[in-house]
Design a protein that fits this description.
447 residues; alpha/beta; Chitobiase, domain 2; TIM Barrel; Immunoglobulin-like; 3 domains; eight-stranded mixed β-sheet; six-stranded mixed β-sheet; 10 helices; disordered N terminus
Length: 447
């Protein structure tokens, strides 16, 4: 009876409003003062598309997955969630953009295409509590806001090189799911599948996929707005002018920055990481890359379709390890490819990633906490000393330090903000996150 009481209590919880933390960051957001309470018994109305359309069916299934009880109702002024395909094309949205309006009396989502509705719904899902997939809420509270959004690049991709490793259908579907959640739309799989001509599929002997499995995955990905290009992706060529590898796709070019976006590389101090390829590609360095080369001419700006990260699976021992290598760096790829270039802000992004770790954990994904290597910013002050700021890639990291040549422990001084140190001072740093030592002791000399 006690267990039953606890279960029933969980069914009637009300989720309070939390600050939206959306990845990739939308193009345009207006935050308002009001609130929208979305009841578990959510009434869904559609306009401009059939109730049995793929997107409506997906959204209804997804709402049930987060323990809501959606019902399709006639269009009225009292709908909780309204899904609309525009009668007249909105040039601001293009083929993949959307307009999401959260008002005190309900949520309205409109787009030019079903793909746009799909992406707008992914944004709405991110506004729900992180544990909504595991907790039944009576209602959730959302902030009133207006979001107008569309992607920067058409091609937002991930390339997985199987390297003779067969990944199961469940694993690949889970990759598709997380790609769709963050609005990535191209999955290129190399090393396992190839086609002899335009009609016949041949299966690499090193892998274990049959034609039916390939078609099933292709159909599943299409329903999640992810396209599979294993039969169309041409060989990569090196571009001497930019030092990057590119692939020509139709009339456009897809960038594949092997150094910056090789997701099989270490993402933090190798001593504290599982096996990976040589080299370092931290969350911060992935986020810093811009697919549009500096000084790009009009031709490049017009013809670069986008970019893709790449993961070689020969360093990933199992699906959980593969997820660890992809996440959260996949979020950085997403924002680089979707959000306007001028809106990128590392400090904001790293905080949003922390919130999304909760979402990923609730959905059963494995991920890397990030790099805990200390980063210094030094500024000279009037008395000749240096004002030192210290941070790691991961917010809320405790930084313990000493300046007397002793090794820092969790009983040492804790960094609470910028400190003034004389030149020549030896500072030693110990990063601790969630009460666990996350990296080596680092030593620096203030110069």
């Amino acid at each position: 009876m006690l267990v039953m009481a606890l279960l029933l209590a969980g069914c009637w919880r009300t989720a309070p409003m939390t600050e939206p933390s959306i990845v990739p960051e939308p193009m345009f957001v207006v935050q308002k003062d009001g609130l929208c309470v979305l009841d578990r018994q959510v009434a869904v109305a559609v306009s401009g598309l059939g109730q049995n359309s793929p997107t409506v069916k997906y959204i209804m299934k997804s709402l049930r997955h987060v323990h809501m009880r959606p019902s399709l109702v006639a269009l009225s002024e009292e709908n909780d969630l309204m899904l609309m395909l525009n009668d007249t094309l909105n040039d601001e949205l293009g083929d993949e953009g959307y307009l999401l309006e959260v008002r005190h009396d309900g949520v309205s989502l409109s787009a030019n295409t079903e793909r746009g509705l799909f992406y707008g719904y992914q944004t709405l899902l991110q506004m729900l509590p992180a544990d909504v997939v595991n907790t039944t809420y009576r209602s959730v509270t959302l902030p009133e806001c207006t979001i107008l959004d569309r992607p920067r690049f058409e091609w937002r991709g991930l390339c997985i090189n199987l390297s003779g490793t067969a990944l199961g259908q469940k694993t690949l579907r889970k990759v598709v799911d997380v790609m769709a959640s963050y609005k990535l739309n191209r999955l290129c799989i190399e090393g396992g599948w190839w086609n002899a001509d335009s009609t016949n599929w041949m299966i690499d002997s090193l892998t274990a996929y049959n034609l039916s499995e390939i078609n099933d995955l292709r159909d599943y990905a299409a329903a999640m707005c992810v396209e599979l290009h294993w039969d169309t992706m041409p060989p990569l060529a090196h571009d001497a002018a930019t030092g990057l590898r590119m692939a020509r796709e139709g009339e456009g070019v897809v960038m594949q920055p092997d150094e910056q976006w090789s997701l099989d590389r270490y993402q933090a101090n190798p001593r504290f990481q599982p096996q990976a390829s040589d080299g370092l590609a931290t969350l911060g360095s992935v986020y810093a890359y811009d697919p549009m080369p500096k000084g790009a001419h009009d031709y490049a700006e017009t013809n670069i379709l986008g970019a893709q990260g790449v993961l070689l699976t020969d360093c990933t021992g199992d699906p959980r390890h593969m997820e660890y290598m992809l996440l959260p760096r996949l979020l950085a790829l997403s924002e680089c490819l979707w959000s306007p270039a001028g809106s990128k802000d590392w400090q904001r992004f790293r905080k949003r990633v922390e919130a999304h770790k909760e979402h990923l954990q609730a959905r059963g994904y494995n991920y890397c906490e990030g790099s805990f290597t200390p980063q210094f910013l030094a500024r000279r002050v009037d008395d000749g000393s240096m004002n030192i700021s210290i941070e790691t890639e991961v917010p809320n990291t405790y930084i313990f330090y000493t300046t007397d040549s002793t090794t820092p422990t969790r009983q040492s001084a804790i960094y609470l903000g910028p400190i003034n140190l004389q030149r020549g001072t030896h500072i030693k740093i110990l990063p601790v996150y969630k009460d666990v030592v996350r990296d080596s002791v680092y030593e620096f000399v203030i110069k």
